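Whether sequence alone determines local backbone shape is best considered at the level of individual chains. We regard such an encoding as a compact summary of how the chain folds. The sequence in question and its structure tokens are set out directly beneath this paragraph.
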Amino acid sequence: QVQLVESGGGLVQPGGSLRLSCKASGIIFSFYGLGWHRQAPGKQRELVAGITSSSRTNYADSVKGRFTISRDNAKNTVYLQMNSLKPEDTAVYYCNADPTGMGTGGFGSWGQGTQVTVSS
């Protein structure tokens, strides 16, 4: 049974930083692409960043230069380092484990989500 558990969300002021973590179990982690997606109230879920099974990365234009996705296969964990946060980054952030290995398509399994709120 695949399980993805996100952590690290919270309330931060504009310009601040947060690091999200997602620990996976029940999969051969190194074979999977991994993605972070987010959903703001009243909006569709969107891809924030993805990392392939070979660690190539892909970012939404809105977060390029501010967010960094990384993976630690030894810990079965994917991270999202978020810097220079803006109020428009406020959303529930979801981790996705993609069996195609690409990490951007939203296939496969999802975590329960973690709330990120950027506000002064």
Observations:
- Residues 2 and 75 are 15 Å apart (CA to CA).
- The mean pLDDT is 96.
